[in-house]
Amino acid sequence: MEDDGGALELGGEKQRVLLAFLLxxxxxxxxxxxxxxxxxGGEPPRSAQNALQVRVSGLRxxxxxxxxxxxAGGYALLVEAGELDSLxxxxxxxxxxxxxxxxxxxxxxxxxxxxxxxxxxSALADLAFxxxxxxxxxxxxxxxxxxxxxxIEADLARGLDADLIGELEALVAENAFRExxxxxxxxxxxxxGRQAEALDAYRQARRTLVDE
Length: 212
Prior knowledge:
Strand content: 5-15%
Strand order of the largest sheet: 1-2
Number of strands: 4
Helix content: 55-70%
Number of helices: 9
């Protein structure tokens, strides 16, 4: 988390978890029970309610009193357009997909590439062992991969077959059981005139998926 002067010191692990959970649900009210579950899982301390209030108060002091609003019996962290990368990603991806649907492949691919450029590694990677993080990170990463597939499909439609082969080979190696990446690799190889390698990619895909 940063402000205009640089990175903010968030304090302990629980403070970071609280901020991350509120950011995942930015501009939406989150109940105290949801926050307690995120912070302590199924075994909260008896003082969980008070401890939560102390941590929310600490975040308000750090971020500013208007950043965390009390709404519908819960808390909402308020962010504006352009402040949060995940919301910018959603907006750019939606605009890119709409452009593709309208037949503007160049603009669609450009917007999707810009959206994907906002990512820095896996979602919530520094909180991987927190109870709430696995499911939330899985949803975020799945959306990123789906947008990446659409961007590659747009580039294939623009005739960039040969340029995509290296990227697709790396993606297949990283996501061995994601069939769409394998299908796109086969298509790119075939269109680039490398039919024998496309057939080998098909055989490898079939072996991998059958074994699994």
